[in-house]
Amino acid sequence: MKTLVTLNDALFFQLQGLYDADQKIQNAMPDFTESASSPELKTLLTKYQRHAGYAQNKLTWVYEYLDRRLKSRTNKVIGDLIEEVLSMTAHASTEEVLDATLIGYVHIISHYKIAAYGTCRAFAYELRLHNIYDIFNDLLASEKNLDEEFTQLANEQLNEKAFQISYLRRN
What pLDDT, in 10s, does the model give residues 129-156? Predict the structure, then answer.
């Protein structure tokens, strides 16, 4: 039996996946942080973990506002991405390449969340759920800001260091 009958159902379905995603991210970030060698990356990963906790608190409020029972559904996308990161860390031969690859995967995770928050925000707008719209607007903005910080760190430091190590090893 199909359970997504209304846009409200679709919003709730997305909400369940996001709740699980943020829980998985919170649990995985300590491993990611431990794997990273760059102090700046470690700091940013810790910040991302805190943001996932903040987001989970906001999503809990949305559950309560919608008068729905708090539960999540398994978010396979984030679960698979986290497993991919853990696999990559076992295969990276240098700290520099690991850091550049790690930040790339965190970008993928962040972009998924940006798309999901944007979808929820659009659904909330159509459903005239202004308080929920504002929450997803806030989560979307903060996720985009973090993504920009990851981009800046990758472009200004980590990718160049990985390139230099790769170049030296080839020559």
Answer: 999 999 999 999 999 999 999 999 999 9
